Amino acid sequence: MMAKFFKYTLVLVLFFIIEKQDCTAQKIELKMLMGEQVLYLDSNYKLGSADSIQITALKFYISDVEFWNNDSLLNTEKKSYHLIDITNPESFFLQFDLPFINAYNQIKFKLGIDSAAHAAGAMSGALDPLNGMYWTWQSGYINSKIEGFYIEQGVKKVFQFHLGGYQNPFNALQELTLKVQSKAILPIAFDLMPFFQLIDLKNRHHIMQPSSEAVLFSRNLKKCFTLK
Amino acid sequence: MFYPEVKMKRLFLFLLICSCFGFVTQSVFNLPIPNGWPKPAYNFKRNPLSPEAVLLGRALFYDPILSKNNTISCASCHSQYNGFTHADHAISHGIYDSIGTRNSPTLMNLAWHKSFMWDGAINHLDMQALAPITHPKEMGERLDSLLVKLNRSKLYKSLVAKAYGDSIVKSEFVLKSISQFLLTLVSANSKYDSVMRHEADFTPQEKKGYVLFKNHCNGCHNEPLFTNLEFENNGLCVDDNLRDLGRFVITKNPLDSFKFKVPALRNIEFSFPYMHDGRFKTISAVLLHYSSPKCKTPSLSNLLKNPIKLSKADRVDLTAFLLCLTDKAFLFNENYSYPKILLLNLPKD
User: Fold this and answer.
1) How close is the nearest chain A Cα to the Cα of B147, in Å?
2) In this complex, do B130 and A134 lie within 8 Å of one another by their Cβ atoms?
3) Which end of chain A is more exposed for a tag (fewer CB within 10 A), N or C?
């Protein structure tokens, strides 16, 4: 009886494994860039003619990724939250529990965390407050965190942007649509340069709470996602 | 691809195997909802109560391990005998004798609350504990350091294993179990409740006080929670040292300036001092304030635009009624105190 039982179990386990491998899973690979260069932590990047910047922290959430063919939704992983962290290159590969469907021509996703998850209580995984992406003094996730130094004529100054806020009028969540060519591992560039070109670091170097500026900066951050 | 009958067979086999191994199930219990009370705001489906998780949360609540230097526990500023507020402290002191800016609120009937803190900064009970744990003037701890400490503790490893069947103490377990303990703190056995259940009668004076209460106070402190859970400006002048703008800090809406969450009045006899900064030591000082609010700023509650007229006798009657909100069964409930006996046979650190 026991032998039979174990045989069944073995067959069943194998079944599941084989079935999983049958179809290729969809992935997205983010290429982290600063202009034409690859983005590394603590490296110098020229900003304008004389000044430069260094990134010391970069984390952001991508959620609710959807795969579309024109107007029809082909595939989606609801309530999925991906935390991308520059210190963890594995996080540049977004894994989905979805098969690759070779027919999508655009993807839609959110930059940040939807308001329902903001108010859903304690969670583990990407939404664990342990990830340093949760405001403890005022409930809410930090959708994106960008920190570093701005170096002006040899003088280093800190900048810190903690962009979040889920309640109107300061809802910082952004929705994006990108036209793409379907691939099992879809490459997308995340280039921080456009973000820094749109802001004046000399005058605005800290955003640490929900505000209209946090919303504006979050909107600017959308421009970082390209297909190059 | 599989045909339906093959799928069914697989499902059956899967269930068979599961039943052979037997699922590990935690015991679950439901929070008793007092008769006539509204539906709780807390989503119990995401955090079903179990005696094991309540015990974990209760142990954490009373343990100064939550603070950076192991000196301050939740109970330091929330003692049971005062309705889980801080006895005789206008503003509480935290780690290194730091002084905060607001009066420690009572903790009871929290399952019905939809926001927490005097300004509603916290949107979910699970996330509430993070604020005092990480506040530099309260417990001054970091969440990651706390988890390192808890994962070194034989006691907490064993409590987590019992509550969640996991060998690692995760932040989700810590936060949800503290919620579980707090959710069990239901105060619904005051004399007022007995009268409502027709098991007791008010004295004539208490009855007069109840009528006054319904005429003048019920607009914000409505039954059965004795709070409407909203934010109101009650006409207190801003303290020059604290300069607390209240709800405005969160919403940035000028109309929310000087608004604070309406506190629940249950156990008011023991929850002194009163108001968001603890400026009034006695109920009579509170009632005097409402007779003539000093600072009528634009956000003043509509219900206070005309002062509440209370004679001296009215104030005495109203006080007599407010004392009927004392719930001794709550204040001295052994299930809410430090779980000394329950922790006796667990591993020590």
Assistant:
1) 9
2) yes
3) N
Write out pLDDT tens, residues A86-136: 999 999 999 999 999 999 999 999 999 999 999 999 999 999 999 999 999
Average pLDDT, chain B: 92
Give the B window 91-130 contacts with A, CB below 8 Å: 121-127, 130
Q: Give the confidence band of A47 by pLDDT, cuts at 50, 70, 90.
A: confident
Which of B121, B122, B172 minimises the CB distance to A122?
Answer: B172
CA distances from A29 to A32, A96, B133 (A): 9, 11, 37
Residue B26 belongs to a domain: no
Q: What total number of domains does chain B contain?
A: 2
Residue B267, domain extent: 191-330
Token representation of residue A50: 């004389």
The reply to whether B198 and B247 lie within a common domain is yes
Q: From the candidates A115, A130, A142, which should be mutated to test the interface with B, based on the most B CB atoms within 10 A? A: A130
Last residue of a domain, one of B186, B209, B233: B186
Q: For chain A, what are the domain ranges?
A: 31-226
B216: number of Cβ within 10 Å: 19
User: With contact defined as beta carbons under 8 Å apart, do A71 and A177 qualify?
Assistant: no
Query: Burial, B124: exposed, middle or buried (Cβ in 10 Å; 0-12, 13-18, 19+)?
Result: buried
B224 and B271 belong to one structural domain: yes
Residue B13 included in any domain: no
